[in-house]
Every structure is written in structure tokens, then in C-alpha cells.
């Protein structure tokens, strides 16, 4: 699941959580304008096209590239859907095609939107308060603030809506057998709504008992992120990324957008150029090793945590202490009245990744 919580307190307008719930299903990101987008693959009455088009993760990246506000990013995504459609394989797997429709949480400092799509058709709701989540099925009902101009006529043409009853998006476009429950961590966040912190969000992401954090043979939480978007524009947006799977065994590391931010090659997957199986036709005939240095170091730490209880406990304690230091340093930045010096944070994420890798070694 992917969550947003809008806190009604002076300093912080929104805390956004976005994480891939399943290996195949999600993408998340942020840009320098303070726009955050999270994507979930969803089941709908109409299957997504198997032919190559735009994947949900493609639309996340394009929305972040071209949108300076949440609404601009939403407009970019729906315009691209209209022009190119969505579809294609989410797996590097030539033997079968796994295609999905998509839902999005799109947020900036001022507003938040839930966008849900079926082919080129879509509906969106503007979120003004409380906790909202998107999962692997449609959630919008009768409160629709924007929609594709032919959405309802298309539903009627398919025989899914008579035009006489109130239009309920999820009822009209969901599969008949879709009885899934949604958002395991939503209740936890709603109970703590007046006192949600970054640590609260991280704890929810690490909750395996509820099913929010997944680590099984079939599915894996591939990476996690928490973003803080202060309403006060003099305060920077702060994004915490793991860059590694399973948040219960990963360190959330802070990142701030500034000019001349230092790139982090150790957290970037290798580039294969024209030899990448994703660029060759037919596609995905082989699967290259896309692990980056941080991922490989994390695999070692994971093996220790699983095989040596005493050493694993020491390792986990040190990891959490490193994370705590980062959270405290970022809280000082958010509460400080002094303007942020970009030179002091340009290499913030680089240093965090470098420290983490050295620590694992």
C-alpha cells in the first residue's frame, strides 16, 4: 500500500509514504519542486493491454520530470495516457506478460490527489485532510473532482453503468470478484493522526505482522521512502530512501534537493547501453545483474541478520543508531530558523550511502 497523511499542524503540511507493495506493482519518486508521486498496480474490470505502451512507472517518472505542482503532474499523466495509452510487461520475463492498470498518489506542499486509471480513462479525487491510501484495487467511489470527459459514456457503452444510478467509479470499473481489503497500516495512522512523525511512518513500513512489509518467496518490498513536505516554503522537503529491499533490514537515509547535488554511483544500477535486454527486440531475452554496490552490501548484512543471531542483533542496533542520527539531524534542519546552506547538504545522501557501505564491510 501507499499512504499519505496530511497533518493539520503549522509546520508540516504533508508526510507522504510511498513504497512498492509488490515487486511488480509500484514506483515512487520526488522532484526538486516538492512534487511526490507514488504508483500502485491495480486490478480492474478491463485488463491492461499487453502491447507495449506506457507503464505506471514510466508515467511516474514523466510526471515528475514535467510537473512543478501536483496538479501539473496529474495533467501530464492523463495527457500521456490519452496520447499513448498504458500497457506492457512489468517483468523482465519474456515467457509471460504481467500488465496492470495504475493508481497514483500525487502530492506537493499545497495539495494532494488520488488518480486512478483504466486504460486511457481516469478519475481523480483531491484530498484535503486525513489519511489516504492506494492499494492494488480501485478506491475512488462517488467523490470525483476531475475525470476523463468520456469516462461515463465509456462505462455505459460497456454495459457497466446504466446512467441512472449514482456513478461510483470503483463499483463500475472493479472486477466482480474484487473483495480485497485495503491498506493494512491505515488504521494505525488514523489512530495517531495528531502526532504522526517520520518515525511513525517508518515503523508502519516495517510492520510485517500487518502485511505492510512483505518478504516472501513470491513478493518482496523492493524499496521504501518517506517524504516530508513542510508547508513553509523556507523549509526544505526532506526525503528518506532505503535504496535496498525490506525496510525492516534497511536504513532510511535523508536526501534534500539542492543545486549541484552530488550523484551517488554506488546506489545506481549498472548501465548496459544498447546491450540492455530492455532495448533489444525481442525484449527481455536475458536478465542482467542490475545490483548496485549498496544493494550488494545490503545482501551481506541481510545474510548476517538471518544466520547469526548475536552478530545480527549488534548489526541491527548499529543500523538503527545510524538511522536515528540522520533523523535527528534532519529534524534540526526543519525546526531551525536559519536558512539552509545548500553546500552543507549537497553530498548528504552520498555520504550516507558511503557510510552505510563502509559499515557493512
UniProtKB/TrEMBL annotation:
MF terms (GO), sorted A to Z: cysteine-type exopeptidase activity; dipeptidase activity
Any Pfam family the entry gives: Peptidase_C69
An individual GO BP term: proteolysis
Protein name: Secernin 1
InterPro entries attached to this UniProt entry: Peptidase_C69
Domain of life: Eukaryota
Protein family membership: Belongs to the peptidase C69 family. Secernin subfamily.
